[in-house]
Every structure is written in C-alpha cells, then in structure tokens.
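Action item from last week, closing it out:
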Amino acid sequence: MQLQNIGSQVTEPFGDANIIRSLENAVQNDKTIISEDRPQSTLERLNTKGRMTAENRIRALCDDNTAWFLNEYQGFDMPREGHNKPYRLGVICALGCICGRQAIIIANDNTITAGSWWPGTPQKITHTLDMALRLQIPVFYLIECAGLYLPHQDETFAGQSGAGSIFEKQAQLNRSGILQVAAILGDCIAGGGYMPLMCDKIVMTETATLCIGGAAVTSQSKGKIQEKLGTAAVHVHQSGCADIMVPDDESAIQKLRKWASQMPASACDFYRIDEPIDPPYETDDLYHLIPIDPAKPYDMEQIVARIADGAQIQPLLDHIGHEIFAASALVDGLPVVILANRTLTTQDSRGQHHAGSILYREGIIKMRQICECANSDGIPVIWIQDVAGFDIGEQAESEGLLRHGAMLIRELANDGLQAPPHMTIILRKASGAGYYAMKGTPFHPAITIATAFSHIEVMSPETLAGTLFDRKIRSLPPEDPMRTKLEQEKSEVIRKQKDVSTPQKAAMRGDIDDIVPLSSLRSAVIRFVRCAWQNASRPSKPVRLWSLFNHIQ
C-alpha cells in the first residue's frame, strides 16, 4: 500500500487573497490592542519593582517563540457598567513549549484589578484546563490573583460554571495524573490562593503572599488591623503550603523551567513513523485556493496538500460518502486522521449527485466508522469544517438522516477523555447541525481554530432572513408600504446576522480558541499533533488504522 500524492500548483487563483489578508490584518490589529493597551501607571509600577507582566512571564517561561496565546478575544466585546471589562477577562492562557515539553500556561493579568476573576474568567480557565485534560499535557500557573472582582461576585461565585468549577477541574487533572505546577508571584488571595494549592509543586517569590482572606477582609472580620498575611517565609518554612522561596519573578520562572526539564520527555520521537517532510507546495497558496464566498466551491485536496507531510495521504473508505474527504496522513511525521467537507459536487455510490458542503447518509456513516477506528487506535483526528448542514427533504427523511446523524454524534460524545484528542478547523463556514456532527465545540475538541473569514451560524444570514420574511413579502402587492417596510427589516436582519457570525464574535463567546492566518495553518496543526502524541499512553500498534503505516520504513 502506497501513500497517494495529492495537490498541484495554483493555476487558477480565486483572487480573494487581498481581501483575506485585509481581514487577517484586522484580527492582528485587535490582538495588538489586546496585548499592548495597558494602564501606563501600572506598567511603570511593575517595572519599578522589578516585576514582569503576565504576558512577559509566559514568554520567559516558554522556549523561544513557542508561546501560542489562546482565547485572546474574550472580554474584548463590551464595557461593563462604566468599568471596562479587562481584556482577556483578566487571565492570559497559552499553549507553550517548555524545555521541549508542550504545556498549558495560565497567568493572571497583573495589570488589571490585581489579577482578579471577572464574570467569564472561571469559564475561560476551566475551558483551558479541559484542553490540558484532553491533550494530557501539564499545566503551569503564573499566579497573582486577588480572587473574585467583588463588585461582580454575584456573577462569578456560585453555579456549576462559577469560580468553584476551576478547583473541580484541577482535581480532575490531578486524578488523571497530569502534573500541575505553580509560581506565586504576587498577592494570592481567596480563590486565587486555592488554585496553586491544588498543584503538585509551588514556588513563591519573597514578596508574594498567599492567604484565605486579604488584609482588608481580615481586618474587617477580626476587628484588628492586619498589615501583611501569608508571606512566602510563612508558607515555605512553617505551613508547608509552598515548596521553595526565590527572590523574584525571573528566579521563579527558572525554577519552573527546571521542573519542566525533569518531566518525562515527549513521546513524539517514539511514535514518529517517518522523518517530517514539508509539503511541496507553499502554505501561502491557500490565499489563492479558497474563495471567501461560502457558496463558491474549491478543491479540499488542495487544502490538505498544504497540511499533510509531503502532500501524501492514504484515503479511507473512498468508495462511499464522496462528499467527505477522509484520509490518514502524517503531520510532522506523526499519524493523524483528517476528515473534511468537500465543497465540489460529488456522486454517491448509486450515482446520485450531491451538493458540496452538505452531509448525506453515506458520508455520515463513513465518518462514524472512521471515528470509531481512530478512537480505538488512539490516532488524533483533524476536522476541517466547511459545512452547510445536513441534507433536507423527503429522501433525507426516508433514509433516516436524523438517526444516522444521532449515531455519529453519539460516537463523538462517547469518545471520552481516554480517546485521542481532536482538533477542529473552521475553514470557511460551520452551519446547522453539521457544525455539531463535524466535532463542533459542544463535543469538546481539544483545540478549535478558525480563519479570519469563517462563520459559525445556524444558517446563512440570507437564508435566515428569507425564512422569516419572504412569505410575508410575497403575500403583499408591490405598491403596499408594508412590503417596503418588511424588505427593509429583512435587510437589517441580514446585516445584524452577518455581524454576529464573524470569527471575532465567535472568539468573544469562547466558541473558538484562536483566529489563525492561513499562512500559519500547518504550523497550528503541527503544534496540536505534537501535543496529542506527547503523552506515552497511546496504544502502540492495534489492528485497524495503524496497519496503513506498516509499509513506511
């Protein structure tokens, strides 16, 4: 069995490259604002005290140029009661490589309200911890947290997704054997204090504090002025809550890096089947291969050819469900399964024509069978979504598409934490229940990324507005003023729906982890694959998909 070569040089570019790059530049400008727009007085105070910002702490902890900041848009959407909700919801999350080991990093933003937790912060932290759980990689905490932002405690304290969910998720990580280490780099109070205490190793700087209640709260409760509580000296030498005390931020980060170097090395070299081979085509070709108009088709093989090593794949179940591209491949020399929507018109095994981007019976059955094999074999799955939803109509109902879709979703939901991690790429559109069936966010892919021109929506704005207004409009004579009013309302609905379905809005809601430039698509996939294979607990050679790689020397 030989791997098949796919893809070709770009001969007929779509001509949307300038538009795509403009959209990507807008995203990058937003990220620059999020990263750099900080109170100058706070930055000066930190610098005077020789302390680093949270973002600089993350960069210092990671190997050079390996910090991938995630979920940056959360908190970028609106002011809250006259006080701007802090960018990134007051916590910075990243995927980084530390001494050659992939790890999740969570750092409190010490430039806003002493790193407090705002409404939405617990959900962001637990989502990031869930990423570590699914990838089975360690977590590093850089903590400087004053607990809940008290003016909004009613929105953050209670409930299943409140602040307490952070500690529950940390306990789950602990039970799963995932290492968690923390550096306490400033005042660490209340819930902010419990977070490091759920970790396996803790380092504190000399000026850091760790306490159940801060000096102000303790003074109010005890009726006695408290100056400073829970110093590093107390917790290292008396309480035993921390393991070691160091002079400053830099020393604490070096201690974390030393601990990282003592962790088990990545298992990627063990599982790497072949030497990594770059695709023979440039990733920048993607700007000329994908039209931004969601109704225009393109060749999915050309996209995968810019992701898979050497632009080589082994098709899976290629005799059925041609609307679904399905293949095993190597990325960075490591095995993956790729499932993607074809947007070109295809034929099923009975010769019936199928529109692109739609899920039909054979494709759904094909995806379920392949997912079952991938989960059994421990091979990570990469989903590339450009899906408009399930087929509809009399034939779809007679073929039981609802039932087949439910069985696929059951497989996705039942893959569990012991199954290999999945990555979802929303390339252009993710619509209707097709979004769920292609491993959408509700089904917990480890990482979800989108492009600057992708959209997540139940249906297109035009289809939605047509569903709401077209019958009413057609029932009125052309000269009726009400018809003109309804047409105006329809146009306004289209405008609003286009605004709320942008990738920026999806990122603000936490539906995606990052908006990635097309030029970085393969790099993002490589980072995911290295994370997925870092843990050595995967099966080594079961009997299903692994056999496809036996011919590779």
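Closing note: The longest strand covers residues 422-431.
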